[in-house]
Design brief:
By secondary structure, the chain is of the alpha+beta class. It contains ten helices and six strands, in the order ααβαββββαβαααααα. The protein is globular and about 55 Å long. The mean pLDDT is 96.
Length: 320
């Protein structure tokens, strides 16, 4: 049975330290988490790719769902990622690509993913991206990267994930990408030089104004509306606001620490301040919804607002 990374198994897999239990945000979002683990399995560090986090903005109703730009993966690691056209079954396409040493990134329904037990598994539907490392259509098993680790599904979950009980003409066609890996790993010298270049590039693409300040202006009023829609909606709101920018800036802190922990000490501290304040604000958000008291949220994000300004000022002086 073909695999992309033949030496790993779901039973013995160890997640990367960026998904360690000591992190404020052990998981970020499905796409970035997937690439962290894929790069780790590929035996190359994921930290160099994380400068794109500087471009996160407040989009009016959410923070940018941050995703590593595909051109960054190619310039750093030589990994080419592009869309895979679906004209046959998803399983047949994935089989073909795995045999060629390519990893398919497939949008699936989290309802069928057992690693989401207690969240969406067999309880609600949701779009998420997995990286398929091994697939056996006969045995109905699949090994896959998802969120912060590496898992296996089988049987009814396999059938559900690939819509076996839906008529072919009515099946939802998922968006699928496939990754082509180079024959040699990028050197540390190349990674550091390219990561430094990308840091300056993404710094120049940062939001024109402080995105956390923009969010802070509407935060209390938005939460008052969220409170009227119940706890299920609260979780969705929190994930797409405070959790997104908190996880984003914790990753930026790790990126700067990988580049040069001493040179960027102040900026690392500022990014971590944003991450920690987001965590605190998430707890305050939950209390505000439960108690219907929203005034304390008016100043909850002040530390993050100040830290973002300090972070950008420091990086601009050091990186240009």
């Amino acid at each position: 049975m073909s695999t992309v990374f033949g030496e790993i198994t779901p039973q013995a897999y160890q997640p990367h330290l960026l998904h360690g239990p000591d992190r404020a945000w052990p998981e970020t979002n499905c796409y970035v988490d997937l690439w962290i683990e894929v790069l780790s399995a590929y035996r190359t560090p994921p930290e160099p790719m994380l400068s794109f986090t500087l471009t996160q903005d407040f989009e009016g109703d959410q923070f940018t769902f941050f995703k590593v730009p595909l051109e960054d993966l190619e310039s750093l690691y030589g990994i080419q990622v592009t869309e895979l056209a679906m004209y046959d079954t998803v399983e047949n396409h994935v089989d073909t690509q795995i045999e060629r040493g390519r990893l398919c990134l497939v949008e699936l329904d989290s309802f069928c993913l057992p690693d989401t037990a207690g969240i969406t598994y067999r309880s609600e539907h949701g779009k998420t991206t997995v990286g398929i490392n091994r697939l056996d259509q006969t045995a109905k098993t699949m090994d896959y990267f998802h969120n912060g680790s590496f898992f296996q599904l089988s049987g009814e979950d396999f059938e559900g994930a690939f819509q076996h009980h839906t008529e072919p003409g009515l099946r939802w066609i998922p968006y699928v990408e496939f990754a082509k890996f180079p024959t040699t790993l990028a050197t540390d010298e190349h990674l550091r030089a390219e990561a430094t270049r990308l840091l300056g590039h993404h710094l120049s693409r940062r939001p024109a104004t402080n995105p956390i300040a923009a969010f802070a202006e509407v935060f209390p009023a938005d939460v008052a509306k969220v409170a009227e829609r119940g706890m299920d909606f609260f979780h969705l709101y929190a994930f797409n606001t405070v959790r997104q920018f908190g996880a984003n800036f914790e990753l930026l802190a790790s990126h700067l620490a990988w580049l040069d922990a001493s040179a960027f000490a102040d900026e690392i501290a500022a990014a971590q301040q944003i991450s920690n304040n987001a965590k605190t604000s998430q707890f305050m958000l939950a209390r505000a919804v439960a108690r219907r008291r929203f005034d304390p949220l008016a100043t909850a994000l002040d530390p993050s607002v100040e830290a973002w300004d300090a972070l950008i000022t420091g990086l601009t002086a050091k990186v240009g």
